[in-house]
Every structure is written in structure tokens, then in C-alpha cells.
Amino acid sequence: MDTQGGRNIDPADQWVLDPETGEYRLHTHAGDAPAATVPEQGGRRARREAERRPAPEPGEGAHDGDGTGTRRGGAAKSRKAKRSTKRRVLVWTAGTLGFVLVAGAGGAYLLYRHFNNNINTVDVGNAGSKNATSDDAVNILVIGTDSRIGLGGKYGDAGSVGHADTTILFHVAKDRSNATAMSIPRDMVTGIPDCPTKQKDGSTKTIKGTPQASFSPRFNESLGQEGRDPGCTMRTVSEITGLPIDHFILVNFEAVKTLSTAVGGVPICLTHAIDDTDERGQGSHLHLPAGPHTVEGEQALQFVRTRHSLKNGSDLDRIDLQKQFLSSMIRQMKSGNTLTDPTKLFKLANAATKSLTVDTGIGGVDKLTALAKDLNRVDSEHITFTTLPVVDNPAEGKNHRTVVVDQTRAPALFTAIKNDVSLTTVAKKPTTADAKLKGPKADPSQVRVTVYNSGGPQGAAQNTLEWLQNTKGVAHSTNGGNAPGAKQDRTTLAYAPEQADQARALAAMMGLSASALHPATTTSGAGSGTGMTLTLGRDFHGPGVPLTDPAKPPTDIPQSRADKKECVG
What we know:
Helix content is 28%, strand content 19%. It is built from 16 helices and 25 strands. The strands form eight sheets. The chain has an eight-stranded mixed sheet, sandwiched between helices. Strand 9 and strand 10 (204-207) form a beta hairpin. Helix 8 crosses helix 9 (297-305) and helix 8 (255-262) packs antiparallel against helix 12 (342-354). It is globular and about 70 Å long.
């Protein structure tokens, strides 16, 4: 702390961005003496006046010294400022991660009061965490709403309250070594749970949930529909994935235009030309030839919204474009050209905070900065983008308008995220655990096992028993019912040393990983003269559905990395 007039002064109150030089300077009010010699009363008044004044926008000059009050640059800068104001219209995730990455560089702290007034908050009750940072893993739900309110009908229905148009679950590992950004398709048919929401008068209103049917509800209805707030989307994602959601960050059609312009444009690359205007004149109206481009402003918004001219014209195709855009945006934000340019840094942080609505747990620049500095420890090469595995909705036949969760592949991805497994992990040498699966396998007729349920779906033990007996020839299998004690997260197979060949055979049938195999203990029920014990955990989703090793990333999940440049489309 420095002192002025005998009082302690926070350095954040002393330094402001000089729009003429692009550098921070010690703040003194016009006519004041230098800070070190300001009398106590005068210094206090000057500081109060300085705190009341809004922080200068980069590019705004001081008044000329001729007493006319005309700003340097005159009409040209005035027109530019008006154009800039009119052009502020956004999209989704970029606004959030933009601030998360930029705040760690320190720009937001120095302009705390200015940026803090930009941020809106929503109280989601017990849906999220009350703490901005954590010593544990962090799950942040980034929601891009398609709300048109306040946009004058430019992008469709001017009265639309907005739904969860683009949603990304951003998971950061406990040790901050890696992060996974999982996109969730908006047209995925899924159930939506009951949702308590805070009303303006302080009361709580519970919005009744909607169970999953053949064609509805779609995931995007978890926000906006029936008055659902972002907390409802958080609860829906938690129910789908089994992961607790700590925070949400909501942005609208404002961020992509302002942020892409603030960083000087976002490089993208197309494998095919985009000509997105359908026969009804609808679409994003984006027209770009194949090859590399740099998009910003309105064109950036068109890029992340386009889908009609893509391979299948679907939301899944659009997600691929959005992942490329966001990866490139992250590279731009973390580049020296952005983080070492105070003017560009101000514009980026200012645009990002204006685009944000967050939960009260991170509702302020101090909390967002703490979170940002924490998450900024993750290197770009270990930030992986992927999509929640889905399949075409079988109820629709050949229409393919909606999708449903792929119950074969999705559980493995959820398990990897839950266990902080990096999707960018380089293949490691075989471990001693892998040796459990190597060696001869017993004939199915020789396999003896008792099946217990300890977290799997209702009736899982009986269904597995029938599957083993009727399709795999494991006649010596019995149903042990529900296992005693607390439910377990992972499926395990306990066996005695002389049953290793039986364990390998059953593991191959069930799709068990080496980590699921355990030597018998006195409480497991397995041992010499008795059958093995198969205990189905929460990771079990049906007989024959492979269970991925929680320490290994799934191998059949498409992914991209934030540090890699690639062409899509």
C-alpha cells in the first residue's frame, strides 16, 4: 500500500489506463498537486471524484486545451464511437472464457469499479457453489442464449426470451493440469427436472419438470421455457452427466461481435465454402470461400450461427464450427499481441464483462478474477473440446431432427471427466494392472459368479444374470440382489488367484477394464471353492456396455485441442 496524506491507498485506486499512450499511469485530478504532497482533505475529495467518474474507454482523448471542450480526434472519433456502440451484438461462450482468460492478466483488477458494474447476477439457490474458487475440480456451465430481447427484431422474434442455444460444460481438473469443454446439443431430447427459481420479490417458485418422451423436451428448453432460469439448465446437465455444476456464465447475441473485434479478428479455416442462405431467404447469410479467413463483428456472429450450408445442416455441424472459433479465440486472447496491449486488453475485458450474467457465487469482478487466475493455470495444449456423444432419435425414423444421449459412449466420457482424465493424455506404457487382462481365459461354462447391484439401474443384477446365461453361456451364475452397504461408483469383479482365467473371461464379456479387477478379500465373498463376485456400480448402464478404465480417456470420442489450428466445415 502507498500512502497519501497519512492514509493507506489501494494501488488499484491510483492507476488508470491512459488512452493516449495505451499504458497505465498514476491518477491525479486536473489541478491537484502530485499525489505525494496532496493534503489529506483535498486528496480524499479528489479520490472520491475520481471514483465517481467512469473509467475512460480506450480511444477517448482528453479535452483539448483551448477551452472548447472538443475531444482530440473530433468528429472522426465521435462517429467511430457511435458505430462501435451500434455494433455491440453477441453470441455465447467467447464472452465468458474471454474474461476468464483475460482477468488472470490483471487488467480487470486495475479497473475493478468500472468492470464490476457491467456484470449481472442470478441467484440459483443450491444449484451451484457459493465459493468462487475451490481446491477441487471445477465445473462451469457456459450458456449461450438466443434471446432477441432488446435487439429490435434484427435476428428474428424480438420478444423471444431465449433458450439454451449453445451450451458448453467446462471442466477443470483438480490439479489444473487439464480442462475439457464438452458441447451439449440443443436439440437433444432429455428430461428436465423440477427447478426452484428465485422471483423478484424474493420468494421461490418451483417450476415443474418435464419427463423425457419420444420427441420432447429438447435440451434447449431447460432455459427460458415456463420461466426457467440458468439454474434449471445447471440441474438438467447435472442429471444427465452425474457431475455437480459449480457455476454458470450466460451470454447473449452481444459477445462474439464485440470480443472478436476487441482481439483484432479471429482466424478460422474452412474445408468447404459456406453459402448460408436457404430457399426461403433464411440462414446466417454468411458467404465465405474455402480456406483461411479472419472474422470479426457481424461476420463472426454469422460464422458461429451458420448451419444450413454445412454437411447435414444440423446443430452438430455448427458445434464443430463453434469449437474451432472458440479454440482460435483462446489462442488470440492468450497471445502476446493481446495480453501485452493495454488498450486491446481493456476492450476485451470491458466487452466480456458487459456480456456476462453469472450466478451469485462469482457475481463480481473480484470473484471472477480469483476464478480466472485459478483456471488460467491450464495450458492451451491441455484444453480439449468435444461433444456429448449422441445418436439420432430412433423415434423419428429418417427425419433426424433430434438426437438422444448415446448410452454406449457417453458414460465413458462422463466417467473420464469426473475422474479428471485428460482427453489429451499421451499413451502410457502398460501398467501392472493391465497385466491382469493378459493370459488364458476360461471357457464360459467354467465361469462361476454371483452378481450384485450396488448403484446400477433397478433390476441390473437380474438383467445381467439373464444376459450371461442366455447369450454368453455362463450357466453357473446367480443373482445376489442388492449389495449391502453404501452404493459404489464403479463396477468391480473380485476373484481368488486361481480364478484369474475366469476373471479374464468375464472381463472380456462385460467390457471391464483392468482397474475393475480386484483380488478377493474376506468380505468380498470370492475365494477358493466359491464363485467370483461381480458388483455393479453407478458406472454400469447395461450388460455388454463397455466400462472404460476411469484412469484412461475414451478412445472413440471426437475431440480437438485449443492449441491446434485446423480446418472444418
